[in-house]
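re: ur question from earlier - yeah i can do the single chain one, its not a big deal. heres the input i used so u can compare w yours
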Amino acid sequence: MVEVQLAGRGIADPRVLAVMGTIERERFCPVDRADDAYADRDIPVGYGQVLHRPQTIARALELLALRGDELLLLVGAGSGYVAAVAAQLAREVIATERVAQLAARAVRNLDGAARVLVVDGTQGLPRHAPYDAALVLAAGARAPLRILHELAPGGRLVHLDDGGSAVRVEALTGNA
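and the output i got, formated as tokens:
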């Protein structure tokens, strides 16, 4: 997966490549989809949500340019895979998930690697701000401005616009 789907398609951040090569994606897939864990496609995890294809996740994490000392807000924890990867790239990860059943699954899968809160993170999470970085996996076509305002000066926000068959990754910088 790392050589063909990530490095072979332009992902160059050595930390992202290394971590994604060590996290077992099948742990975060429904049992009946574990054989698809490393496939080059999104995997349904229930409740209308997906575990994004590896390249999409790697590109988003690469754009965040995490150094290891950041507080990262992750909106859309899903089954916890992205939080598990991000937890090895940032100092602390606070993940939000609006679907309680998925949040519970993420908590089990993460085994303490990140905090998971059952809340609609697209509305922001000011009580833990400012964030050095934010990754929004579940917000529709526009990056949530509330989160942009919760970033520390120079903070980075990456937003996945999952608008149909193509996923657009958008990176913004906070000015607060």
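The mean pLDDT is 89. not sure if urs matches, ping me
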